[in-house]
UniProtKB/TrEMBL annotation:
Co-factor requirement: pyridoxal 5'-phosphate
Main localization (coarse): cytoplasm
Record key words, sorted: Cytoplasm, Isomerase, Porphyrin biosynthesis, Pyridoxal phosphate
Signal peptide feature range: none
N6-(pyridoxal phosphate)lysine: residues carrying this PTM: 268
Protein known as: Glutamate-1-semialdehyde 2,1-aminomutase
Protein's gene: hemL
Length: 434
């Protein structure tokens, strides 16, 4: 495959943009480096790169693109918004329309506020929880990613319930000390953390269905227990649904699982591909936020008409009957095909799948927390990723990320993808292609 134009663009980018990219994972560090492919056109489930190679896309821009690239309904909405001016700094009626649409879809949202990214949304829920409870500490779960703000970019030390250490230079140790990290799906570690720090905990932050060390579902009853124990300790429960809102159902993971948080952070899909974030929750908690309350949060771009219009249009596509059934059906085809192929070559894999999102782990052991995901074979994943890319399948360049299907994917895409999977497994094992 000729990728000469991508190569020269990346070399040029490295002269001007730090690391050549505007978000680190795009530099393929998760798969041992290489030249990132520069795409020039997305249409439905497909990409064309700058060297005119064609790809089936499962990156979905790390989640937001659930209706396929350049969906005509969303594109029209964005064009229309652009023709009337993309940014006013005054309220617009679109904000009301969208807020009502989100509230109708997710019952735990009495009040919402739009921001510009998932990072902003999560960061603000923590501030609001601190304002509401008058406490400082938070509990989070190891391996969950909640954006790049100081407080959540903190890793666990060793042991079941540990005070955090900064995961990035530039985060003061004192900030990390306000974060307690426990393993996902481990209720006794969570209880221990509460026993030790319970009366200092403002909020418990969790991805209700994890998307950041692969797709990992909570064990039966885990989230309900998190809710009950957190509330007993006087802490708020915050769901980070930046990946999960509108991913598995028209609504959020909380509805699928039948548990309600006090606050929810969202992003990605709800912007239809334009920058967005949103947070919301119980009215008495949200009323902590300025201009009603003492917790300050603002944004020049927040609620801008283009993001609102794209988000509304995206939800209009998703609310069509059959959307999530389609994603689930294709997801199941992909899962079965990968598993069958792997077993025919004697390769140990786990496919963690929910609906139209899945993660392929190279391991023989179930993955239910971050440690399990860490212990999967990264080198095998890197070879798999590079081989799939060379065969025209664009995946996320990390063993921890999900493959995202879109409403634009068709059975033909899945068949082509499975053909590439089979060839890749043949190459990885040196066996004959089935
Ligand atoms: N929370 C979760 C669960 C995420 O997956 C992400 C992004 N991958 C974020 C927050 C941060 O969102 P953004 O990149 O829009 O700031």
């Amino acid at each position: 495959m000729n990728i000469e134009t991508s190569k020269s663009l990346f070399q040029e980018a490295e002269q001007h943009i730090v690391g050549g990219v505007n978000s680190p994972s795009r530099a393929y560090k998760g798969v041992g480096g290489g030249t990132p492919i520069y795409m020039k056109k997305g249409e439905g489930s497909r990409f064309i790169d700058v060297d005119d190679n064609k790809y089936i896309d499962y990156l979905g821009a790390y989640g937001p693109i659930i209706t396929g690239h350049a969906h005509p309904h969303i594109t029209d909405a964005i064009k229309k918004a652009a023709e009337s001016g993309v940014l006013y700094g005054t309220p617009t009626s679109l904000e009301n329309v969208f807020a009502k649409k989100l509230k109708n879809a997710i019952p735990s949202l009495d009040k919402v506020r739009f921001v510009n990214s998932g990072t902003e949304a999560v960061m603000t829920t923590i501030r609001v929880a601190r304002a509401y409870t008058g406490r400082n500490k938070i509990i989070k779960f190891a391996g969950c990613y909640h954006g790049h703000s100081d407080l959540v970019l903190v890793a666990a030390g060793s042991g079941p319930a540990t005070l955090g250490t900064p995961d990035s230079a530039g985060i003061p140790a004192a900030i990390a000390e306000d974060v307690i990290t426990v393993p996902f799906n481990d209720i006794s570690s969570f209880q221990k953390a509460l026993e030790q720090y319970g009366d200092e905990i403002a909020g418990v932050l969790v991805e209700p269905i994890v998307g950041n060390f692969g797709i990992v579902e909570p064990k039966e009853g885990f989230l309900q227990q998190v809710n009950d124990f957190a509330h007993e300790a006087g802490a708020l429960v915050i769901y980070d649904e930046v990946i999960t809102a509108f991913r598995f159902t028209y609504g959020s993971a909380q509805q699928l699982l039948g548990v309600e948080p006090d606050m929810t952070a969202m992003g990605k899909i709800i912007g239809g591909g334009l920058p967005i974030g949103a947070y919301g929750g119980r009215a008495d908690i949200m009323e902590q936020v300025a201009p009603l309350g003492p917790a300050y949060q603002a944004g020049t771009m927040s609620g801008n008409p283009a993001s609102m219009a794209a988000g509304i249009a995206c939800l209009e596509v998703l609310e069509q009957p059959g959307t999530y059934e389609h994603l689930d059906r294709l997801g199941a085809l992909l899962e079965d095909g990968i598993k069958n192929s792997a077993s025919s070559y004697g390769i140990d894999v786990q496919v963690n799948r929910l609906g139209g999102a899945l993660t392929l782990f190279f391991t023989d052991k179930e993955v239910e927390n971050y440690k399990d995901a860490e212990n999967t074979d990264g080198e095998k994943f890197a070879s798999f990723f590079k081989s799939m890319l060379s065969k025209g399948v664009n995946l996320a360049p990390s063993k921890y990320e999900a493959w995202f299907l879109t409403t634009a994917h068709r059975e033909e895409d899945i068949h082509k993808t499975l053909e590439a999977v089979d060839q890749t497994f043949a190459e990885m094992t040196g066996k004959n292609h089935n």
